[in-house]
Amino acid sequence: MYSDLGGLNLMASGASGDIRFMTGGASEKVRIDSAGNVGIGATNPGGRGSGAPGPYLNVLSASTTGASEVYVGGAGTSTANPYLGTYGFVTTGTSASEKRLGWMAGELEADSATAVSGRLSFWTNNGGALGERMRITKAGSVGIGTNSPQAALDVAGGVRLGDDTNTCGSGNAGTLRWHSGRLEVCNGTAWNSVVALDGSSAGLAAASCKAILDAGLSRGDAFYWIDADGSGGVAPQQVWCDMTTSGGGWTVPVFQGGDTSINSIATFTTFCTGKGFPLAGRGTEAVEAWLVQKRMLWNSNHSLKTGAWPNGRANLNMPMMKQGTDATTLYTIYNQAVCSRPANIAGDGCNSNTTEQFCGYWYNNGWNDSNLGNYPDPEDWGPSNDDGSTWWSCMYR
């Protein structure tokens, strides 16, 4: 150690020597190693595996029951010089007047003779202008883009959400995500759209026409976007919704079969599920279902109607029941529960021929507005009735 005109100099002998400060006899408290690294409570003040070139400041505690602490403070007040402690990041490789890249400050938010309250502010340099970007108030509220947050998290600007592929459960209830083109929230059981699913677009597709009706979002009989099998299944599709007949809420999708493979409840269910409608047949044992399908063809201007149907032998099959092997018992298509053919529908008994596969609506006769409210005749049919151009209804309510 020596003194010159520049001040007091401390120098370790040798190129690799360290300077050590000791108290209480030979108890080392501070060390400056030959690379310029400073250790408080650290006899080897290196980079701790960071890989950065240094120099480093290490503050370590030898206690197993306590932690190292660094205090930076001052004697300001909440109204005069509230920035009592700051921590900044600077660059020396520029001639800019503002060399701070980022800055964190501990500030007095309120003070009295007996108590103080503090906040933290976080600043960044944007093109030479150092400005506050985030604040944590004394109550723990976080403001981003605002220094006066009015909620636990207050963001002055847009917030971008990504997808969350986790299953919704009690552990993540309240979580928001952006999924399949819409904002969803986990309610502890399932992911639900935050906005009303009114079926007006693919992004607002509802599970069924009944769901739209029950939510008070019906636009009357019309085409709506429906996603019956939910996220991850078949993409949402436009289908006809009958919001009128017998209280409404009928989802009426129809598809061209193209072959004779639909010959049982299982193959019918497989066909409709593959189209994205696993609830096909639910509620169709009700007498009103016969009218719903007929009105769909007429009111929606389906291609069977506009093509001067029934020319060309195209049929529309709406299976509602399946006969049992005893040629007497009828079962619903949806859940194979025992049911009866509606008594007020005239025509084929639907169980008079054990070789037929389905009982329901096999319609190949035209109509007009004057008989639109009349029930069509029930039919029973099998694969021989499908000529490859037949349409199948996956209707449900």
Description:
With about 400 residues, the chain is mainly beta. It folds into three domains: about 1-60, no CATH class; about 85-155, no CATH class; about 235-395. It contains four helices and 25 strands. Strands 19, 20, 21, 22, 23, 24 and 25 form a seven-stranded mixed sheet that branches. Strand 8 (about 100-110) and strand 9 form a beta hairpin. The radius of gyration is 38 Å and the shape is elongated. The mean pLDDT is about 80.
Can you give keywords for this protein?
3 domains; 397 residues; 4 helices; mainly beta; single chain; 6-stranded mixed sheet
Secondary structure: elements and pairs:
Elements (H helix, E strand, L loop, with lengths): L1 E3 L2 E3 L9 E5 L3 E6 L5 E3 L16 E3 L23 E8 L9 E12 L4 E11 L2 E8 L5 E3 L8 E3 L20 E4 L2 E5 L4 E3 L15 H6 L7 E5 L10 E6 L7 E3 L1 E3 L8 H10 L13 H12 L3 H4 L9 E8 L6 E3 L5 E2 L18 E6 L15 E3 L9 E3 L4
Parallel strand pairs: 5-6, 11-12, 20-25
Antiparallel strand pairs: 1-2, 3-4, 4-5, 7-8, 8-9, 9-10, 10-11, 13-14, 14-15, 16-17, 17-18, 19-25, 20-21, 20-23, 21-22, 23-24
